[in-house]
Design a protein that fits this description.
single chain; alpha/beta; Rossmann fold; 7 helices; 7 strands; globular; kinase
C-alpha cells in the first residue's frame, strides 16, 4: 500500500492535483481522504461561536481520528469517514464508507503539520501557489460553495488564514518530498512523475 500526503495553502490547487492524478491513473485502486472531513465536531457550541473558530490552526483538526483511520486502512480495515458541513461548522452525522485500496491519498492544508501523521506517509507533496492567486480562489469558493459574503471571507483571510499559513502551512513545505508549482507546465510535469510512481506501485502489487 502506498500512502501519499498532499498539502499546500488554501486555494493552492491541491484538489486539482488530486483530480489530475486520478484522471491520469484512471483506476479504482486509489482512494482520497480529505482533511476537511476531520474538523472537530463542535455541535455543543452555539453557531455564532462555531463561526469564529480558527479553522486554519492545527488544533481545529481531529488528528487523532484521522491517524486512526489511516492506520486502519493500512491494516486492511474499512473505515467510516465523517462528513463535515462548512455551513453549520459541525459534522452532519453522515459517514462515508471507505474500503482500503492500493493507494491512499490524504489531502489538506495541514496534513504535513502533524509529525505522527507524516510518519504514515510514504510520499509527501506540497502544492505551491502565489498568495494572490490563492486568495482569489478562496474568495470564489467560500462565496459560491460555503455561503459566505465577501467581507467575511476577506476578514478571515487577514485575521486567521494568512497568519496561519505563514506560521504552520508554509513551514510544512520543508517536510515535502516533492513540491509542485501551481504553474501549467511545472504542474503537469510533476503530476505525470507522481502518477508514474503510483502506477509502478500498482503494477508491483498486482
Amino acid at each position: 500500500m502506498l500512502v501519499i500526503g498532499i498539502a499546500g495553502g488554501t486555494g493552492s490547487g491541491k484538489t486539482t492535483v488530486v483530480n489530475n492524478i486520478l484522471r491520469d491513473l484512471n483506476t479504482e485502486s486509489v482512494i482520497v481522504i480529505s482533511q476537511d472531513n476531520y474538523y472537530k465536531d463542535n455541535h455543543d457550541m452555539p453557531l455564532e461561536e462555531r463561526s469564529k473558530i480558527n479553522f486554519d490552526h492545527p488544533r481545529s483538526i481531529d488528528f487523532d481520528l484521522l491517524k486512526e483511520h489511516v492506520r486502519a486502512l493500512k491494516n486492511g480495515e474499512t473505515i467510516e469517514q465523517p462528513v463535515y458541513s462548512f455551513i453549520t461548522h459541525t459534522r452532519t452525522g453522515e459517514t462515508i464508507l471507505t474500503h482500503p485500496q492500493s493507494v491512499i491519498i490524504v489531502e489538506g492544508i495541514l496534513v504535513l503539520t502533524d509529525a505522527e501523521l507524516r510518519e504514515l506517509f510514504d510520499v509527501t507533496i506540497f502544492v505551491h501557489a502565489d498568495s494572490d492567486e490563492r486568495l482569489i480562489r478562496r474568495v470564489r469558493r467560500d462565496i459560491q460553495e460555503r455561503g459566505r459574503d465577501l467581507d467575511e471571507v476577506l476578514s478571515r483571510y487577514q485575521d486567521t488564514l494568512k497568519p496561519m499559513h505563514q506560521q504552520f502551512i508554509e513551514p510544512s513545505k520543508n517536510y515535502a518530498d516533492i513540491i509542485i508549482p501551481n504553474m501549467k507546465k511545472g504542474h503537469s510535469v510533476a503530476v505525470k512523475i507522481l502518477s508514474s510512481v503510483i502506477k509502478e506501485k500498482l503494477n508491483t502489487t498486482k
